[in-house]
Design brief:
Elements: H1 2-37, H2 44-65, H3 81-112, H4 126-151, H5 167-186
Helix pairs in contact: 1-2, 2-4, 3-4
Length: about 190
């Protein structure tokens, strides 16, 4: 199952890259056409906005899978292994509940907006809310699998803290770890 999730995340990353490329072409093309030729791409703003929404939700799925979201872990790191496991389980149960609420709300909004058309493209506005449905399904799957790994004991103690304190702290640890490895190799 984890291989399938890994492949799915690689596909999502490709979709994000493609969406970003389309956004760049639309926005840049629109700017050039407006200032250079006094015309424009009418669907540019609407499609770019939708692509940005989808990129945000899909990127959050990839970040969740890679445990890349920032968090505060100074209390959890000081707990014994059992305390870390309890905190991780409680955190995952709470996140699963929040993802369930997001799923319900996104489905309700998609149903409400199914017949509402976008002003320029004429496409259904449910497309916007479908991003929340896709995110909540994929995030729920990832969270449930992480929780299952925890409950079956297939998670290492080093993986019990699944957040990063800050990007700077991670970079500092990598630098200090590299220096420590180099000093150990010299001895």
């Amino acid at each position: 199952m984890s291989r399938w999730i890994e492949r799915c995340c690689r596909g999502i990353e490709a979709l994000i890259a493609a969406a970003l490329a389309v956004m760049v072409v639309l926005v840049f093309g629109n700017v050039v056409l407006r200032y250079g030729f006094n015309s424009g791409i009418t669907v540019s703003e609407e499609v770019s906005r939708w692509l940005f929404i989808w990129m945000t939700f899909l990127g959050a799925v990839v970040a969740l899978k890679e445990h890349g979201h920032l968090g505060v872990d100074m209390v959890v790191q000081k707990l014994p292994a059992l305390g870390k496991k309890v905190c991780l389980a409680v955190g995952h149960v709470v996140m699963l509940y929040i993802v369930w609420l997001l799923f319900q709300g996104s489905v309700a909004q998609a149903r409400i907006n199914w017949d509402v058309t976008a002003p320029v493209t004429g496409a259904s506005m449910a497309i916007v809310y479908a991003s929340g449905v896709v995110f909540s399904v994929l995030a729920g799957l990832i969270l449930a699998l992480d929780l299952l790994r925890l409950l079956t004991g297939r998670i290492a103690e080093s993986d019990l803290v699944m957040v990063q304190e800050s990007e700077e702290a991670v970079q500092l640890q990598q630098i200090l770890g590299a220096k420590g490895d180099a000093q150990g190799a010299r001895r």
